[in-house]
Amino acid sequence: MASGGNGGGGRVIRVLNVAEKPSVAKAVSGILSRNQGGGMRVRDGRSRYNKIFEFNYTIRNQPCQMLFTSVTGHLMELEFDDRFRKWHSCDPLHLYDAPVRKYVPQDKLDIKRTLEEEARGCQWIILWLDCDREGENIAFEVLEVCRQANHNLNVWRARFSALIDREIHQSVQTLVQPNQLFSDAVDVRQEIDLRIGASFTRFQTMLLRDAFVLDFATDDRNLVLSYGPCQFPTLGFVVERYWEIQAHEPEEFWTINCTHNFDEGSATFNWMRGHLFDYTCAVTIYEMCIQEPTATVSKVKQQEKLKYPPHPLSTIELEKRASRYFRMSSEQTMKVAEDLYQNGFISYPRTETDCFSEKTDLRVSNYFFHL
């Protein structure tokens, strides 16, 4: 990997910057171009949705002409060679050692052309993909396309967890190398998903399609009984939870509550017994309390209670609480989280962490000041 020095020098170099989404490219460009001489210029790329932002910036005393564009998620897809793509071309078992290849699909060709054209005239490329394994893999997809057009590019990776000024400026001044191992881990996962999903889907569709009468099938020839390494266990969780709900038998219970009102306010007392499932017993005990309304305070215990601030939420816990308290789907939750992230309120939502970056300024007023 090319990694020439990134410090000093009076010659202006051209730097291609690539983000994972158009909105991130626009946000980061806005932050970096603020207060820079010449302002920011915007022009169209080959793709109408992926604009190119141009501005001047200095990286470690090196004057740079920044060209900032984006992709839209993964630039490439994984598929089998043509001779294995038809369902009856081979035994499903043969898909486990069939050759696979990565390619740029038709709907991403305009983005690919933009990257190639811009890379030819640049000396550096800075990869601003999201800071998780998936983002690292997309970074290497972008790099593969750009290096086909310019194999002399110096390659750098910007790591950031929030779209706020201090975080972005610090990340561009502390550029690192992209992590090949993280990208390889995603390649392995994608290949496993493809081989298992395709082989089991073909196997069970061809085996079961003629064995059962499927009322929901309108056209048996186009019927697919799909299987996926994530899809199948998730279906199991849903079915198991459904069975638990169906098997639940609600049972009535009663409680006895006591509240004492006085000049300074009121005090509520909780019965240690909790719930009573026998109505007669509950009524009997309640009548005994009414007949003897005077109570004696036998012991008063005082203690200091500390209320700690809430911990940051991991992605899974965020989705759980949004579902429980707001009845929001996972898709809705991640959409809102993505919007908050792009406006600088939270760190990147798709990483399984509950820790803030050391570079994050937690003073809320600063977020609102910059928005």
Automatic annotation (TrEMBL):
Domain Topo IA-type catalytic stretches: 179-371
SUPFAM superfamilies: Prokaryotic type I DNA topoisomerase
This protein's record includes keyword Isomerase: yes
MF (Gene Ontology): DNA binding; DNA topoisomerase type I (single strand cut, ATP-independent) activity
Keywords: DNA-binding, Isomerase, Topoisomerase
Signal peptide span: none
Gene Ontology terms describing biological process: DNA recombination; DNA repair; DNA topological change
Domain of life where this protein originates: Eukaryota
Catalytic activity: ATP-independent breakage of single-stranded DNA, followed by passage and rejoining
Record-linked Pfam families: Topoisom_bac (PF01131), Toprim (PF01751)
CDD domains noted in UniProt: TOPRIM_TopoIA_TopoIII (cd03362)
UniProt similarity note: Belongs to the type IA topoisomerase family.
Record's function text: Introduces a single-strand break via transesterification at a target site in duplex DNA. Releases the supercoiling and torsional tension of DNA introduced during the DNA replication and transcription by transiently cleaving and rejoining one strand of the DNA duplex. The scissile phosphodiester is attacked by the catalytic tyrosine of the enzyme, resulting in the formation of a DNA-(5'-phosphotyrosyl)-enzyme intermediate and the expulsion of a 3'-OH DNA strand.
Protein's name according to its UniProt entry: DNA topoisomerase
Natural source organism: Nicotiana tabacum
